[in-house]
Amino acid sequence: MADNPEISKLSTKEAQVEISRLQDELIDDGIAYYEKDAPLVEDHVYDAKYARLVALEAAFPQFVTPDSPTQNVGGAQTKSGLAKVQHPVPMLSLGDVFSLEELQEWEDRTVKALGSQPSYNLELKIDGLAVSLKYEEGQLVQASTRGNGSIGEDVTANVWTINDVPKTLNEPLTIEVRGEIYMPKASFASLNEERENQGQEPFANPRNAAAGSLRQLDAKETKKRKLSAFIYYTAEADRLGVTKQSEVLRRFAELGLPTNTDNRVIGKMAEIADYIAEYTEKRDSLPYGIDGVVVKVDEIDSEIDLGNTVKVPRWSIAYKFPPEEEQTVVRDIEWTVGRTGAVTPTAVMDPVLLAGTTVQRASLHNPDYLEMKDVRVGDTVTLHKAGDIIPEIGQVILDKRAATAEKYPIPTTCPSCGADLVHVEGEVVLRCINPACPAQLQEGLTHFASRNAMNIDGLGPQIVSQLLEKKLVTDVASIYSLTVDQLLTLDKFKEKSANNLVQAIKNSKENSADRLLFGLGIRLVGAKAAKTMMAELNDLGTLAQANVEKIVAIDGIGQAIADSVVKYFDEPQSQALLAELANAGVNLAYKSDNGSVDENSFFYGKKIVLTGKLEKSSRSELANWLEAHGANVAGSVSKKTDLVIAGSDAGSKLQKAEDLGVTVWSEQDLINAQQDESN
Ligand code: IVH
């Protein structure tokens, strides 16, 4: 860390104070990272602090305490309910370097120790978490996490749910192998979207998401999280009959173990620069996260000769990519009110190109976070992507801060309705609790109409905003009194679009009640939880009267969701809303869709695009029908499209379908097929 005083210039007292402070901080950081899967600081900050502590402790060994983080191999001991597993051979971590110069120093030491030039196997450093897999006579008998290196956690049941990990090897070998469990970027993005929909904190990066998912006590939960694996190491290469790490990987693949095939054998260290450059370039487009390159001495005999230090192997080193980072200037801090009334600050910045996309906004999450980062309007900040995906402000460049820059005031009133904001006990967020707050209504109504909720086609955010402005709606129940004449007063509405929307609203009354329950936007109640509760209780009226005991008794529903539901329906205005919805004719009963998706249907699993004007039914009705028959209705035509259904005046989508040779049907073709289906 550049700002730190040189160690040789420190007095003993100063060193002692700094060592003790770093030890404390790194223990806290470690607990947040390993136990809570919610890091307090970014990896490179942790790495820099850790490196500084190692250097200080080397110079002042009298201050090394047994509980110093440098004395543990890995993270803090975990405290979850999983069984502990003792690793017979400790699961070591890797030493890391951050520059080609440091890599060269490592190679100089290696060549000196071996007395000759080794060749190296270069591998990608997968950003996940290490696991050990034990196979006995080819059968997977145990999977465990690294834990603190000596003792990990038993995650066998969870690893069983990961498709990539074979339960049986292609040969009846007894062997312990190690590798990385990771969450592909796409799974990470959809998991976080779902978590945010459900009012849960998103995971900071795919690694934390993978760790959180693997350490679930319920393996069914792990299965939903779509994890993958790469296996890259065994201490028992002799059992594979090979003598090189590069051959170990090849043998793993023969055994049916998932391996990363981007490895490369090089004869001298100078060749690593090309590999690093190549993967720095490819990094963004890989479907999984990597945070560096692992260099391994290829010859296993040399590996054994070099051996390990207490903490890390001497035969391998990790080169860590510098964090992809840009600087930009903060122009504004916007406070927005979400559906649940949470008032969140977002930094709005000059746009910059970062890891493949243009970024202009980064969430500052809540007032505490803003306070901690102390971002001010006009500040130059570093910007990176957490887990390669989510834009995040690193730090303010204080040297570039204008003397006049002022701390950003935390609002005391709602930016939308002006009501006093509250800090609910036990929460970090600031909330507007005015149920009539227009911003909350805007978000709440848009959510109600959204696809996974009541699926009211044509009732998007712009229309909702106009309806609120004209005071045509006041809550979700008032949607059901909208008339064609009222809609005609809105911008761009014509007879046909007004009729279609009124019809879509009417159709939504028939939805299964789980959609309605999800649409109400009760905190923590996502689409899945809504379905689970309604499938059990059948009637939304029953749920509205249920107590916490009755709701937690439902398989798959936890205390927090049950509390939230009861709290919601305890409010008289929630009961009144439900009564209004019922009066408007909205269905409160659960309609099971079990069995309605017929896997033998012609449409099952097909990707279908609708385009042009349809005569016999509206596009949304057709889309619903197709989805009910297992089709995936998409908005644009690609090579993967199976079928395009084109009405009259179809334009570019039809053209594209024809160019790509995708099958095109008329509306009549579809009607014929629908009749065939029902016969
Ligand atoms: S080898 C004894 N190879 O990086 C050496 N580790 O920062 C075992 N990692 O603990 C590790 N990709 O969790 C190895 N290709 C790779 C890796 C890799 C990711 C992880 C692993 C390790 C950590 C060290």
TrEMBL record:
Keywords: DNA damage, DNA repair, DNA replication, Ligase, Magnesium, Manganese, Metal-binding, NAD, Zinc. Coiled coil: none annotated. NAD(+) binds at residues 43-47, 93-94, 123, 146, 180, 296, 320. The keyword Manganese applies. The keyword Acetylation does not apply. Zn(2+) binds at residues 414, 417, 432, 437. Residues 598-672 form the BRCT domain. One of its GO terms (cellular component) is cytosol. SUPFAM superfamilies: BRCT domain, DNA ligase/mRNA capping enzyme, catalytic domain, Nucleic acid-binding proteins, RuvA domain 2-like. It catalyses: NAD(+) + (deoxyribonucleotide)n-3'-hydroxyl + 5'-phospho-(deoxyribonucleotide)m = (deoxyribonucleotide)n+m + AMP + beta-nicotinamide D-nucleotide. GO terms for biological process: DNA repair; DNA replication. It holds the Pfam family HHH_5. InterPro entries: BRCT_dom (IPR001357), BRCT_dom_sf (IPR036420), DisA/LigA_HHH (IPR041663), DNA_ligase (IPR001679), DNA_ligase_AS (IPR018239), DNA_ligase_CS (IPR033136), DNAligase_adenylation (IPR013839), DNAligase_N (IPR013840). The active site is at 125 (n6-amp-lysine intermediate). Its EC number is 6.5.1.2. Its cofactor is Mg(2+); Mn(2+). One of its GO terms (molecular function) is DNA ligase (NAD+) activity. Belongs to the NAD-dependent DNA ligase family. LigA subfamily. DNA ligase that catalyzes the formation of phosphodiester linkages between 5'-phosphoryl and 3'-hydroxyl groups in double-stranded DNA using NAD as a coenzyme and as the energy source for the reaction. It is essential for DNA replication and repair of damaged DNA. This is DNA ligase. It comes from Fructobacillus pseudoficulneus. The gene is ligA.
